[in-house]
Design brief:
This protein is of the alpha/beta class. The chain contains 14 helices and nine strands. The radius of gyration is 18 Å and the shape is globular.
Length: 304
């Protein structure tokens, strides 16, 4: 499925006066797929055919990403992106979801989970979260290792860096977070760049990147909910990811009770693109176990 095909099957809803692109396909239990930075819902295209055979899958491009609007003066935040998901799901009449998230989307999932736990504490009404599966992401700010481009975007030079960034710079930085054997093709890199550039998106990256500060501000809330929730959790991690690979797995095992972790030993930052069949096998096994009401399994490694 190429990028044009992905876009042609999409839908649009309005959030705070801005157009948000999303995919909604399949039937059954609802699965929400939450993408990472700086890409979009197209990240899930290699999993999509198998996912929609078993779920109704909903995957938006968050504001500032992909085919959604990218307002230049918007106050982008992870909290707001979580609200975007709640508004979309409510508009579709959805009350129960499983979550599969990656990178930036991991933290959006953490906030959605924290809101769910908050509602449970006072018997509030809202979306029920049945399970959460996290791919590589900076869920612990102290373990996150941002790339030079991210550091520059976060700095006072961020607006200038955003204006001067080129496809060549992007290709070099982006390819480096994949495993050497599973890096994107030239055509794929061009399509990722096209997603970022759509609606002049590079010009807002210095605003979106403030999520790294947000993670530090809300660390207690977002890490705490992973430690305390009864919602089943699984991490699927590409271990050779320089940003959030094996070192994040080590921190997860240290901080999270009964950690359920699948390690893909020769995979980088984008397991869903680099090892889609392994991710599908690990995710389906996890959800099937959740449906049967079984507990966590031991952490283990998969050799690709």
């Amino acid at each position: 499925m190429n990028l044009t095909q992905w876009k042609s099957a999409g839908l649009i809803f309005s959030y705070r006066g801005h157009a948000v692109f999303y995919r909604d396909e399949g039937a059954g239990d609802v699965l929400v797929c939450i993408h990472g930075f700086p890409t979009a819902s197209w990240d899930w295209h290699r999993l999509w055919p198998a996912l929609i055979e078993r779920f109704r899958v909903i995957a938006p491009d968050m504001l500032g990403f992909g085919f959604s609007d990218k307002p230049k003066t918007y106050a982008y935040s992870l909290l707001d992106q979580a609200t975007l998901h709640e508004v979309l799901l409510d508009s579709l009449g959805i009350r129960q979801v499983h979550i599969l998230a990656h990178d930036y989307g991991d933290t959006v999932a953490q906030e959605l989970l924290a809101r769910y736990e908050d509602r449970l504490s006072w018997n509030g009404r809202g979306i029920e979260i049945k399970s959460v599966c996290l791919l590589n992401g900076g869920i612990f700010p102290e373990s996150h290792r941002p790339r030079l481009m991210q550091k520059m975007l976060l700095s006072p030079l961020g607006p200038l860096v955003a204006r001067l960034a080129s496809e060549r710079m992007f290709r070099r930085s982006f390819s480096a977070i994949f495993a050497p054997e599973t890096r994107p093709s030239e055509d794929e890199l061009h399509e990722f760049w096209a997603l970022i550039q759509h609606n002049d998106g590079m010009r807002v990256m210095h605003r979106i990147i403030d999520y790294m500060r947000e993670r530090r501000i809300y660390r207690q809330r977002w890490v705490g909910v992973l430690q305390q929730t009864r919602v089943p959790l699984r991490m699927i991690n590409g271990a050779v990811d320089p940003v959030s690979g094996a070192h994040v797995v080590a921190r997860y095992r240290q901080l999270i009770p009964n950690p359920d972790v699948i390690v893909l030993d020769t995979v980088g930052h984008y397991p869903q693109l680099e090892a889609p069949q392994a991710v599908l096998a690990a995710f389906f096994e996890f959800v099937d176990r959740v449906r049967l009401g079984q507990g966590c399994v031991s952490s283990r490694s998969l050799l690709e």
